[in-house]
Structure formats: structure tokens, C-alpha cells
Amino acid sequence: MNHIQHNQIVNFIWGIADDVLRDVYTRSKYRDIILPFTVLRRLDALLERSQTCY
Length: 54
Prior knowledge:
With 54 residues, the chain is mainly α. The protein is 80% helix and 0% strand. The chain is flat and about 40 Å long.
């Protein structure tokens, strides 16, 4: 992954955070929410992929 791709992903995640979390959490608390939800989404994708294999 190069620097440009990394920045695009980061900007995408922050854009979602601004849209979804704006009224629920202060911007300083975004980091407490974004990482756990990103991990959950990755786990969900892995589980979905493993369920389709069986």
C-alpha cells in the first residue's frame, strides 16, 4: 500500500466518522470508536468468508 492509498482509506474512514458519529461523540472520542468498529468489521468479513466456504 502506498502513501496515496493509505491517505484515501484514512480520509474515507474519517468521512464516515464525521457523518455517523458527529452528534453522538465528540471528535476527540472518535479514535475510541473507530478502531474497535474497524476490527469488528474485519472479523465479520472473515467470518462471512469462512461460512461461505462450508
